[in-house]
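Batch job 17 of 40 flagged for manual review because the log was empty.
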Amino acid sequence: MKRAMAAYGFAVTVATLPSISRITFGLIVGIAFHVAYAQEIPLRIGERVPTLHFPVVFQSGQAIPRQGHPLLIEYWATWCGPCIADIPHLNELANAFEKQGIDFLMLTNQTPAEVVPFLQNHPMTGMVAADPGFSTNRLLLAPGLPVTLLIDADGRLAAITRPDRVTPQVLQALLKADPLPLASLDLRLETDHLLFADVGGADAIAAVRVIVHPGRDGPLGITSGGFVFSGSEKLRELLIRAYQVPPQQIVLPDDLDAVYSVKAWVPSFDADGVMPIVRAALLSAANLRVREEMRPVKVMVLWNFPGKMRNPEPNDSMASSDLIEAADGRIDSRGGIHAETLRETVQRQIGEPVVLEDATQGTFALDIRWDPKNKDGIRHAFEQAGMPLREETRLTKTFIFSAAEKVE
């Protein structure tokens, strides 16, 4: 049996299952970029929630959402530890506020085979439904779970937050249409390793954010869930990472090599776009200027790509362009690799500038291995593959940093 329920911006199709009841500089430099998405515009605070479809309802005491009633939507999954930990808190809120008119909708993207047994051991109060593609979650570009949406009685998004931040005081304000005592999170700027502060107003539509300040604030690292470049290092190391060159191509006076902290986030589909912004923020925070010069530098020259490598074959075990770059001494791209990709990979492995010589255009299968304990192992491996690596001195682009004149 199927039935449809619709109210301010939501439509739920139910397949019945057995009932289981800006740029600023100073000590902090911040850069916010606004990105317009052609295909998927994220929902903003105060906007009306569009019509959304939930194909399967596991549990429903009444048809929701109801026009004129505030709504809490919780995104969760059976495998999500924090989601499970928040169930008692949400149940307590639902038991207290459903009678006052707030509806509770628990959404997952999982199948009945996963959800039904889970609910038998972890009862949830309110409607429990499936949104297989998490279409509502994608409107927020939110990378993780749990995520909580608060929608007011007029069907407008009032807050994007985490369930543990929703208190009785927050829901009382939602009922009265008062300002919520809760800063809405821009969840696109969160990962397990990096959390930007609560944001509001214009900050909430920032799709790229970079913050630089003097001093130490945790180790430097790169994480997933969108491209994140975060932590603290000496300025020289930060410049090496930001300009994406080996140390030999960075010239910085020792007296300028202080420690700075960086927090940078950009959506994973545009990770290459964050580094120029990080560079600008570092230059401004450290009061630097930079010029480029061609200087003689010792480099490793990679000759004769592709050497003895063959063309990729349909039965290669790797996907068409996947690359394995292993710390134990291996570069594997049997599905195909271009010369420039190989150059960048070798440069990362040896930490020295690498230039190409006599490279052939096209994509070639590659699987090269060596003993990482042998400092000449990678050179021997490439020699055997018909692509010798030879040390030479060549004029190479070098970035020269110096203190900028201070503006009074």
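Reviewer: the log was empty due to a logging misconfiguration, but the result itself is present. Residues 86 and 280 are 41 Å apart (CA to CA). Unflagging and moving on to job 18.
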